[in-house]
Write a structure and sequence with these properties.
By secondary structure, this protein is an alpha+beta fold. The chain has a single domain, classed as Nuclear Transport Factor 2, Chain: A, CATH 3.10.450. Helices cover 27% and strands 32% of the residues. It is globular, with a radius of gyration of 17 Å. The C terminus is likely disordered.
Length: 154
């Protein structure tokens, strides 16, 4: 794949991040995705673009002011890897947890596969455990010595 094609694929991901993640417009990115798009989320979600759309709706509902910042964007052949960080305020329900109005932060790594200039497949690793601990869905783990914001048992 040419460098020009790799740069074009990176522009597609930057457009996706801007519209879907930062402008919270889950319906404004259909043109960036192949009609046979496949996501690899572990949660029980509909297949295709609708599954990705539902993830966006859930995250935007729980964190309506989320801002995602690109930390790294690397293109190689027909793949683009994005490492990003997100900050937001927990203002909506998530996994049954009432809004806490806490400021939260998490990291994400995404791999996008391209076909004919469109995203045809997507994998995501989102620091959900860290996020869920910040909003109280999961307890924080106690580390040896009572590390970072945690109380030692006793």
């Amino acid at each position: 794949m040419s460098d020009a094609a790799e740069q074009k694929n990176k522009r597609v991901i930057r457009e996706f991040t801007r519209i879907f993640k930062n402008e919270h417009n889950v319906d404004g990115v259909n043109h960036l995705f192949d009609k046979n798009f496949v996501h690899h989320f572990r949660a029980p979600l509909p297949s295709g673009f609708e599954g990705l759309r539902q993830v966006g709706i859930m995250m935007n509902g729980a964190f309506p002011d989320v801002v995602v910042k690109e930390e790294d964007l690397v293109a190689s052949g027909d793949r683009v890897v994005e490492r990003s960080s997100a900050v937001a305020t927990h203002k909506g329900s998530m996994m049954g947890e009432k809004p806490t109005n806490k400021r939260v932060a998490w990291s994400e790594i995404h791999i996008y596969l391209f076909k004919d200039g469109k995203v045809c497949e997507h994998w995501a690793e989102i620091a959900m455990m860290e996020l869920l601990q910040q909003i109280g869905v999961l307890p924080e783990l106690i580390q040896a010595g009572g590390a970072h914001g945690q109380q030692a048992a006793g």
